[in-house]
Amino acid sequence: MAGQTLSTWAFLSAGLALQGRAAAPKDVVGCARRIQHNPPILKGGQLLKSIRVARAVGGQDTEGDFEEMMLKDMERLRQRQAKSATSGSRSTADEVAPETSGGALDGVKNVLDKVLIADFFFVCLALVWLGAGVAETAALKSSTLSDAWLQLWPLVFQPAIGVLMLGAILSGVVGWLKNQQST
Questions:
Q1: Mean confidence (pLDDT) of the chain
Q2: What global pTM score does this model have?
Q3: Which of 15, 92, 102, 167 is deepest in the core (most CB within 10 A)?
Q4: Residue 163 burial (CB < 10 Å; 0-12/13-18/19+)?
Q5: Sign (positive/negative) of CA torsion 122, 124, 130, 132?
Q6: What dihedral do alpha carbons 89, 93, 98, 104 form, nearest 10°?
C-alpha cells in the first residue's frame, strides 16, 4: 500500500513534467495534505526523499523552498490539532474512557474468560490422554489408558466440553452487552 501511494505522488510530478509544466510547490503541498489523510508506511525520511526525486523529475531543484513549505504546513497542522483539542471536541482520553471504565460486566467477563481458558486446557489434556490411549491400544494391544479415559468420559469430560461451549456463547453475549452498554 505504501509503495502504491508513494508511486502515485511520484507519477503526479512526473506527469506534470511530461505535460510541459513543472510540479508547483502548491501541488506538492496538496500531495502532502493527501498523505496526511492516507499516510504511507515509510521509515525515516524516505517520503521526503521520494518527493524530492519526484520534484527533480518535474524539473525543480528548490529543496529549500519545499522544506520550508512543509515545515509551515506541519506547523499549521499542529496548531489546528491543538485548537480542536481545546475547543471542546473529544480528546483521546475521552475516547478510551468507555473501554477502560469498570463495571459489573467487565468483572463477569474477566472471570468467565479465566474459567474458559482453564477449561479449554483441561479439554486439551483430555484429548491428549485419549490420543495416548488410542496409540497404546494400537501399538501395545493394551487398553489401560483407554479404559480409564472411558470411565471418566460421561462424568468429567462431557460436562467439561459442555461448559466450554456454554461459556463461549455466554462470553459472546456478555461482550455484545458490554458493547451495547458503551454505545
A1: 74
A2: 0.45
A3: 167
A4: middle
A5: negative
A6: -150
Cα dist from 132 to 48, 137, 140, 147, 155, whole Å: 61, 9, 11, 12, 20
Q: DSSP string covering 112-179, please?
A: HHHHHHHHHHHHHHHHHHHHHHHHHHHHHS--HHHHHHHHHIIIIIHHHHHHHHHHHHHHHHHHHHHH
**pLDDT tens digits, 101-146:** 557 888 888 899 999 999 999 999 999 999 999 999 999 999 999 9
Q: Is the C-alpha dihedral spanning 37, 41, 46, 52 positive or negative? A: negative
Q: Which amino acid is at 37?
A: H
d(CA 149, CA 156): 10
Q: Which three cell numbers, joined as nine digits, stand for 103?
A: 463495571
Identify the weakest region by mean pLDDT among 11-25, 82-96, 100-114: 11-25
Domain locations in the chain?
2-86, 96-182
The answer to whether 125 touches 149, Cβ cutoff 8 Å, is no
DSSP state of 100: H
Which three three-digit cell numbers place residue 83?
A: 485548537
Q: Tabulate helix, strand, coil % of the chain (nearest 5).
A: 85, 0, 15
